[in-house]
Amino acid sequence: MRLSRYFMPILKENPKEAEIVSHRLMLRAGMIRQQSQGIYSWLPLGKRVLDKVNAIIREEQNRAGAIELSMPTLQSAELWQESGRYDAYGKEMLRIKDRQERPMLYGPTNEEMVTDIFRSSVKSYKDLPLNLYHIQLKFRDEIRPRFGTMRSREFMMKDAYSFDLTREGAEHSYNKMFAAYLRTFDRLGLRAIPMRADTGPIGGNLSHEFIILADTGESEVFCHKDFVGFDIPGENTDFDSVEGLKAIFDKWTSLYAATSEMHDEAAFNVVPEGERLSARGIEVGHIFYFGTKYSEPMGAKVQGPDGKEHFVHMGSYGIGPTRLVPAIIEASHDDNGIIWPASVAPFDVVVINMKAGDQACDDTCELIYAALTKAGKDVLYDDTDDRAGTKFATADLIGVPVQIIAGPRAVANGEVEVKDRKTGARETMTIEAAINRFVA
Ligand code: ATP
Ligand code: MG
User: Fold this and answer.
1) Which tens digit of pLDDT belongs to each residue from 211-245?
2) CA dist., res. 440 & res. 433, Å (int)
3) E strands along 55-169, which residues?
4) Residue 242 has what pLDDT?
5) Model-level pTM?
6) In angstroms, what is the span from residue 277 Cα to ligand 1's centroid?
7) What is the CATH number of the domain that holds 169?
8) Which ligand 1 atom lies nearest to the CA of residue 140?
9) Which atom of ligand 1 is the closest one to the Cα of 200?
10) Coil, strand, or helix at residue 435?
11) Beta-bridge mates of residue 352
12) Which of 79, 81, 149, 288 is the most exposed place for a label (fewest CB within 10 A)?
């Protein structure tokens, strides 16, 4: 991508409305724009990051055996009357009427709709287990939308829903998502700790929130320090192994970890003082097992091996991609801007032409840009005629992991500078060596 032809509206000044660093940096880097309170456009740079986050979420959901579909944002109120949640949900639900005066709503979550899909076509235990997910916009009319996309009214959610014949089966489905979440957050460069959680309006009796420790987090959390160093389940995890996944779940729930709603001071005080961590955190994921809470009122049942009909045991599993992007920034930035983990960086590398219009600099940059693009890298080429200082500031602000800097003096020697955004380390090398670093 040539910066001269891209759309990346950088802000020079710090926006006054932003209270936390991720919100400030997302606005300054031109990643998002608020359209009305708590409702955002994702501008091209932000969209790239969001897409990469979603791709990782999707890969790990698929690995764990979940199947992707797509459900609509608008739902009929009738479904919610069946489960009894239409009245219970309260003011967070945006209720709308269509031209025939039929009551509709903008979905805050999808338990009812997915249960309807399930009951319309699954009739036998032989089709279980089943886990269906989508990545879709939700709307919740939050009383205090704030911190940019961290807590917005319209936001994206990956929500998965599992169906099993028995409670034991449902626990295995829960453990699959538990392990998939550990892997997902790790690949996003985050350390998320599962904590016993309250189930809220989703209902049910087994639930964990995945929390990232951050000073700007809205939740108060208490946990054992050792979680910070625990091993993440590997790529070769066998998601069909009931014992294997149970062992992962047991290990990750063996030590104290709770949000303030579930906090038990006496139990926490049993943890040796030096190993206690009380901090603030950001909830990035939440998983629930809720048995037959929806399947019973909505009549979602299958024929079991005993020939009888059974209401299915369900769970639901949410991750917030539009909250994860700012959460990653909270965890990874410095005074100059964002520092993206390579896995979600909007570009792999930025090529900075320090003297656009200078033949040797232009030729060198074009050569590198073409070679890296051909090698399948996402390259941003700063071909604008801004001053070098402005270009450096922009490259640091948008946090691309590697910068290749071509200035007249180095280029005259057939060389460029390669800068690591995270460490700030700069290395001078031949043009060929700079290219080979990515191609090899
Ligand atoms: P919170 O306690 O932060 O209000 P919640 O418990 O209501 O969230 P869930 O119903 O558990 O949210 O939703 C699953 C995930 O969706 C959350 O873990 C979070 O990542 C994301 N999410 C929920 N509400 C918002 C929001 N207003 N803005 C952005 N992401 C959200
Ligand atoms: Mg929650």
Assistant:
1) 999 989 999 999 999 999 999 999 999 999 999 99
2) 10
3) 67-68, 74-76, 94-97, 103-106, 130-139, 154-164
4) 98
5) 0.96
6) 23
7) 3.30.930.10
8) 27
9) 6
10) helix
11) 382, 405
12) 81
